[in-house]
Amino acid sequence: MTAAAPLTALVDSAARTVLLRGGDVYSPADPFATALLMQDGVVAWVGEEGAAESYARDADLVVDLAGALVTPAFVDAHVHATSTGLALTGLDLTGCPSLGEALARIRAFVRGSAVGPGGVLLGHGWDESTWPERRAPSLAELDEAAGGTALYLSRTDVHSALASTALRALAGPELPGLPGHLPDGPLSRAAHHAVRGAALGHLTPRQREAAQRATLAHAVTLGIGALHECAGPQISSEADLTGLLALAAAGGGPEVFGYWGELGAVDTARRVGAVGAGGDLFVDGALGSHTACLHDAYTDEAHTGAAYLSAEEIAEHVRACTEAGLQAGFHAIGDGALGALVAGVRAVADKLGLERVRALRHRVEHAELLTPDQIAAFAELGLTASVQPAFDACWGGESGMYVERLGAERARTMNPFAALLRAGVPLAFGSDAPVTPLDPWGTVRAAAFHRTPEHRISARAAFTAHTRGGWRALGRDDAGTLVPGAPASLAVWAPTDLIVQAPDEIIRNWSTDPRSGVPGLPDLTPGRALPHCLATLVNGRSVFRTAS
């Protein structure tokens, strides 16, 4: 038998042909595979140990997996890399238990920061719906904690923010007249966009690059091999997106695919190197900020949220993208927004032809409060649902934020993953980081153990949505699965027992029988530790490995 090197030999390996053997390989090509051969960045063979030795004789490098699990690398189909990096390296209020603790963390952050004159401090993640006080800080409380600093703190859903008086001044004298302005509270809608623009506009190129590097470096430690960056004039900037794409193209981290969310901006999307004119092109806002557009009023506020685009505007954008052969996409959360989106896309299908629209796999980000008719329309129109299961883990359940905003009956319809799959709607999973953290196995768990049982899907289906689903959303059917001819973008996980989880007991009993030929995945039962990543490879090259 040919001698094998440990996994650490993968670091900076320039070997053209690499054989991984002695583990478990998650592949539809062979459910009992223990070995995988990579050649020039492509999967060349997958199989069992008995045949591995014949490939070992000719391989440049043979690696002993020592029982580790090899899977396709994850794809996070919705991120904001700069904001995520700022949360990773700056003030992160995610999970903060109270208003008082949030103010204490703000004071400590300001004291420890060396911001220069005219500089801005940024933070993220506060969520007053989880605090005993049930309110956000007043402007006076925020200013006291900020000590005169220009401070921007996005809410966990990134659709409203706290802004100190100094930052409000940077946003300009027109701020008080903008929709969503509150003199003593969080800012939303156009007022939020204004203060966010002022805050991000004061980031130096060095700060921006450092934040992006932090996100890319963190992603590969989690087995993530590709990210979909959702950019746009209301989210970031052209310079932010082009800088990120250039940084990713230099290698050493995950692949990054950019989306530019600006109405009608087909030429801009192409000029900045985006793969689609969409992502966070807002049809509405978010439930937490009471800006998701609903058919019926919120339970806790007497209005229906914010409608940012009409069906006619949506149709014109989809028409322009379809005629240009470019994927369109929209952010839509509430049933009111999703109704307008379906009407707009259907109008284009009636004009240009259904198959022409379906061929581009236009995307809908979030798609949370869907009606049965809207789910059927997604399937008919070939729309991809780019969704975030961690939203349900954070805000679902009988006493979560969804119930508070919508009431129990509507809340039970949120994030209907099983119904989408039954209808044949393609799913692509993501995090919307920094709204929820980069956490791929946690995302798979959240879908498999949805807080509303009828919306649960199997772990296998959830894993597919977080791997192959992200590639299919890009129009790539050749990636995201470990079969010969596919890109060798993969992750290696510490040895663990493998099982087959399914939401239905009959299916579970059948699929755990070895004769079923269904490959197993780690046990994701809530409370169990999630898999630990040992190495990540992108197109056959090592971009991360543990030190030992």
UniProtKB/TrEMBL annotation:
Task: Respond yes or no to whether keyword Hydrolase is given for this record.
Answer: yes
In terms of CDD domains, this protein maps to: YtcJ_like
Q: Which residues form the Amidohydrolase domain?
A: 62-544
Top-level division of the source organism's lineage: Bacteria
Keyword field contains Hydrolase: yes
Where does the record locate the signal sequence feature? none
Task: Name the keywords, alphabetized.
Answer: Hydrolase
| Molecular function GO labels | hydrolase activity, acting on carbon-nitrogen (but not peptide) bonds
Q: Which InterPro entries match?
A: Amidohydro_3, Metal-dep_hydrolase_composite, Metal_Hydrolase, YtcJ-like
Gene3D superfamilies, A to Z: 3.10.310.70, Metal-dependent hydrolases, Urease, subunit C, domain 1
PANTHER family assigned:
IMIDAZOLONEPROPIONASE, PROTEIN LONG AFTER FAR-RED 3
Q: What is this protein called?
A: Amidohydrolase
Organism per entry: Streptacidiphilus pinicola
